[in-house]
Amino acid sequence: MAFRMFHCWLTRYRWIWRSSIWSSVLGPICYLGALGFGLGTLVDKHSTASLGGVPYLAFVAPALLATGAMNTAMSEAAYPVFGSIKWNRIYIGALASPLRPADIFRGHLMFMAMRLAMNCAVVIVVMWAFGAIRSAWVVLAYPAAVLTGLAFAAPIAAWAITVKVANAFNYLFRFVMMPLMLFSGTFFPLSQLPAGLRAVAYATPLWHGVALCRAFSLGTGPRDPVGMLGHAAYLAVLAAVGIWAGARTYRRRLYV
Amino acid sequence: MLERPETEVLVRARGLTKKFGSFTAVDGIDFDLYRGEAFGFLGPNGAGKSSTMRMIGCVSPPTSGKLSILGRDPVKDGSAIRARLGVVPQEDTLDVELSVRENLLVYGRYFGLPRRVIKERTAALLEFVQLADRAKSKVDPLSGGLKRRLTIARSLINEPEILILDEPTTGLDPQARHVVWDRLFRLKQRGVTLILTTHYMDEAEQLCDRLVVMDRGRFAAEGSPRDLIARYCSPEVLELRFDPEVHDAAADKLKDFSAERTEVLADRILLYVTDGDDALTAVRASGLEPLTSLVRRGTLEDVFLRLTGRRLED
């Protein structure tokens, strides 16, 4: 039954896919251009030993892939879920059909997964065009990035359905997304941080996503299969908790 | 006792109660709805009509009491019951970013209908609500009346046995309302059971075989429109309007008047009498001179005033 809900989102997407694709292509081009070429030229003049001896572009690109997945998850899970009750009331309409709250949740999550798969594929193609990929193992960076996105999308959607005032999302953007984006080994290696902060960063989901994507894009991943599995397991658990919680929060919010 | 058709009971409620925290929205109501009838819930805003509708629609679990719909338990079998219901909610839940046809397609898919079936029914339903020529246009620019008709078409995509309508014509202009009434009447003729809430008396009189007047979560009265008028209202009503300066004084004086009942509203005084013209003559003879007067038959609105002590718009 979740597929029936997925079909609804797909039908809606058919009206906007062109503009949506353009914006998802433009984003990574800007970021890779500015950080990879602009900032990267400066960084590469000094020693890149702390980056693992690779050019800054190759270092930062897979992190942007993981961060991009987080941002896609955010934009697909926060306002769209909230709006489906408050604004366009898609959930309310669907609720009068045989669909149950859990179906409505899972169907929407499927669509989020599809958007993640699309956007991550676009980023990888742009990375390739910039010459930022160092290994064929990057094919595993792709599912890793999608998993990173799901680890955010599922819990955010499960929470967004309970939100009463849209303003709450600003706190999420400012106090969760922003610090995660800056301090997850994205733009600089975590070894640059003081030990205390480093421990915090290791506990955050985005760091695990960045570590996975980077290891596969640089080709170092296969040398540390246990570490890779650990990262993936962390993200999978987060996604699973979100999926479990969402079925419950949706029910509580929609059956009143 | 009311005369009831000896047919299948589709909805049965006993002691049905809905509470939100300490607020009791529906306070232990009992009713049976029969196949093929049109049943109306009448009442002021906040009387518990919509809460009752939502419980029948299986999207709101009862706090206590018994409720069975199509012989099943709405909490356990909500999904299966909803497959056989149609719902026209108080506020449209159409997808304004999609076209008219896509709205029906998406909705039909919710019910698991094959595309071919949805296509056939879409054509027939758009014809039925006179929207066939707008099939490809987006929903957003449609007028309120057209949107309502589309909502009705959408609610029929699964060929429901029971159609639940929560204030189906609120906010529509008179022409649009008449179109909606006409379509609902045709559905009833086809054997669809209608359950509706309204605070329009003319709507209730036109559409409902039976109705209940709801107030503060309970039933204040129950019966056919004609029954209720006969039981709770005099044959005629004399409406008097006085100069605001003397309104209160006139009201005082009319209290001793030999009417069945007197209702003092903010702007008018209603006398419930057997013969309105006689009563008017008597009022004039007693020295009161109303600015305007009107003799009319008793209506559901009078029943409503008597039972709830409030005007409908409150």
What does this structure look like?
- The complex is a heterodimer of chains A (256) and B (314).
- Chain A is mainly α and 256 residues long.
- Chain A has one domain (2-254).
- Chain A is built from eleven helices and no strands.
- Chain A has helices spanning 2-13, 17-45, 56-77, 79-86, 90-95, 101-129, 138-160, 168-182, 195-203, 205-218, 225-254.
- In chain A, helix 7 runs parallel beside helix 11 (225-254) and helix 10 (205-218) crosses helix 11.
- The relative contact order of chain A is 0.16.
- Chain B has eleven helices and 13 strands.
- In chain B, 36% of the residues lie in helices and 26% in strands.
- Chain B has 314 residues and is of the alpha/beta class.
- In chain B, the strands form three sheets. A six-stranded mixed sheet of chain B has the order 5-6-7-3-8-9, sandwiched between helices.
- Chain B has two domains: 9-230, Rossmann fold, CATH 3.40.50.300; 234-298, Alpha-Beta Plaits, CATH 3.30.70.
- The chains are: A mainly alpha (256), B alpha/beta (314).
- The A-B interface holds A 1, 4-5, 7-8, 11-12, 15, 88-90, 92-100, 254-256 and B 20, 57, 59-61, 78-80, 82-83, 85, 87, 89, 91, 93-98, 102, 105-107, 109-112, 155, 158.
Structure described in brief:
The complex is a heterodimer of chains A (256) and B (314). By secondary structure, chain A is mostly helical. Chain A is built from eleven helices and no strands.
Give the arrangement of secondary structure elements.
The complex is a heterodimer of chains A (256) and B (314).
Chain A: H1 2-13, H2 17-45, H3 56-77, H4 79-86, H5 90-95, H6 101-129, H7 138-160, H8 168-182, H9 195-203, H10 205-218, H11 225-254
Helix pairs in contact in A: 1-6, 2-3, 2-6, 3-4, 3-6, 3-7, 3-10, 6-7, 6-11, 7-10, 7-11, 10-11
Chain B: E1 9-20, E2 23-34, E3 38-42, H1 49-56, E4 64-69, H2 78-82, E5 85-88, H3 100-110, H4 115-128, H5 144-155, E6 162-166, H6 174-189, E7 193-198, H7 201-207, E8 210-215, E9 218-223, H8 225-232, E10 236-241, H9 244-255, E11 261-264, E12 269-273, H10 276-285, E13 292-297, H11 300-308
Parallel strand pairs in B: 3-7, 3-8, 5-6, 6-7
Antiparallel strand pairs in B: 1-2, 1-4, 8-9, 10-12, 10-13, 11-12
Helix pairs in contact in B: 3-4, 3-5, 8-11
